[in-house]
Specification:
alpha/beta; Serine Threonine Protein Phosphatase 5, Tetratricopeptide repeat; Pectate Lyase C-like; seven-stranded mixed beta sheet; 6 helices; extended; CAP_N; adenylate cyclase binding; C-CAP/cofactor C-like domain-containing protein
Length: 383
């Protein structure tokens, strides 16, 4: 309860930032949403094992990824017209980059509390005062009479045995008695009769279990590229951390194929035949019009937004996908297979209304009715 009271001012500011994103839209709508998403990173101080939050560095990174989607919109809108807006997006990114580095260096596994410390309400931010020095103990009583004489006699050094060459000559002077302490060597103790000391070297070498494992070859990173293949398909592959990928397509018969991109933002300008995304992570894709379909497979943490018309969306083996549909694409089909956390945002009733978010079902129930199975999505209801 004390910790919650300490965090109350931060929580109040976070709630105020969320309040700016509600209601009627304004020219700064993307600014407000970017700040509201980014401020979620401040809750890293609440991390506890098993509480559902990611580790502090990862939590900060995930929160800023949500904010970066909106800050990129600000960047694209004002890149050519207002340099101050560009500097603002860079400043927001710098703040949370430093916060991630800070948590990674000092609190990578969360805050460690001092179990023997004072209560949070009693802590004033200063180090505890040093206690008064204790008085030295009283001198012990004198020893009893005769104790020192007995101690001196007990501590007298005994006669040391001879060392070095003098010890050798002393032993030789014993004559036959010099071998009296030696142990007799039997036949089974001789080296020539011991199987483990034969001296033979096997050609096979040490057993396989004793050999050091061969080091695994490091997987070479593939180069990033954007190219038109066979005059039919634009390939955008192997990009890492590039938030300013812009692809302008002038031929509507060309398709776009995104492969193995991570932490990127891709903007596709112009009408294209199809958009395909394969094996991408934490990447945002913004496109205009699509003739055939938009397909996403084997990907996670994706954000897909269409500003024009698209007839079909297909998601296969995907986790955590946010789809933003335009008013022209509301009649499109959305097909999912082996997916989880697929959310679709549709425009509000008017231009001033907030988008409405819909969660697509992940669980289904099948019932055998009238000689056939009827499959319906699972409906969870309270009560």
């Amino acid at each position: 309860a004390e910790f919650q009271a300490l965090l109350a001012p931060i929580a109040k500011e976070m709630e105020a930032a969320q309040g700016k994103t509600r209601g009627r839209r304004s020219a700064e709508d993307n600014h407000y949403k970017a700040v509201a998403e980014a401020m979620g990173a401040l809750s890293w101080v609440c991390y506890q094992p098993g509480a559902g939050l990611s580790l502090p560095p990862q939590h900060v990174e995930e929160s800023y990824q949500g904010a970066e989607f909106y800050s990129n919109k600000v960047l694209m809108e004002y890149r050519q017209s207002d340099p101050r807006q560009v500097e603002w997006t860079k400043a927001v990114k710098a703040v949370f980059t430093e916060l991630k580095a800070f948590t990674k260096k000092y609190f990578s596994t969360g805050i460690k509390w001092n179990e023997s410390g004072v209560a949070l309400s009693a802590f004033d931010g200063t180090a505890p005062a040093a206690g008064k020095k204790k008085a030295p103990p009283a001198a012990p009583p004198p020893p009893p009479p005769g104790y020192l004489q007995e101690k001196a006699q007990a501590g007298a050094k005994p006669k040391q045995p001879a060392e070095g060459m003098s010890a050798v000559f002393s032993e030789l002077a014993k004559g036959d008695g010099v071998t009296a302490g030696l142990r007799k060597v039997t036949d089974d103790m001789k080296v020539k009769n011991r199987a483990d000391r034969s001296g033979k070297v096997t050609a096979s070498g040490p057993p396989a279990s004793d050999r050091a494992p061969a080091p695994a070859a490091a997987k070479a990173a593939r180069p990033a590229k954007t190219e038109l293949q066979n005059n039919r398909k634009w390939a955008v592959e192997n990009y890492r951390g590039d938030r300013n990928i812009v692809l302008e397509v002038s031929n509507p018969k060309h398709g776009v194929y995104l492969y193995n991109c991570e932490d990127c933002t891709v903007q596709i300008k112009g009408k294209v035949n199809a958009v395909s995304v394969d094996k991408c992570k934490r990447t945002g894709v913004l496109f205009d019009d699509v003739v055939a379909a938009c397909e996403v497979v084997n990907s996670s943490g994706m954000q897909m937004q269409v500003t024009g018309k698209c007839a079909s969306f297909q998601f296969d083996k995907c986790d955590g996908v946010q789809l933003f549909m335009s008013s022209e694409s509301l009649a499109a089909e959305v097909l999912t297979a082996k997916c989880s956390e697929i959310n679709v945002s549709t425009p509000g009733a008017s231009a001033d209304d907030e988008p409405i978010e819909h969660a697509l079902p992940e669980q289904f129930v099948s019932r055998f009715t009238n000689g056939k199975f009827i499959t319906e999505p699972v409906c969870h209801s309270a009560g």
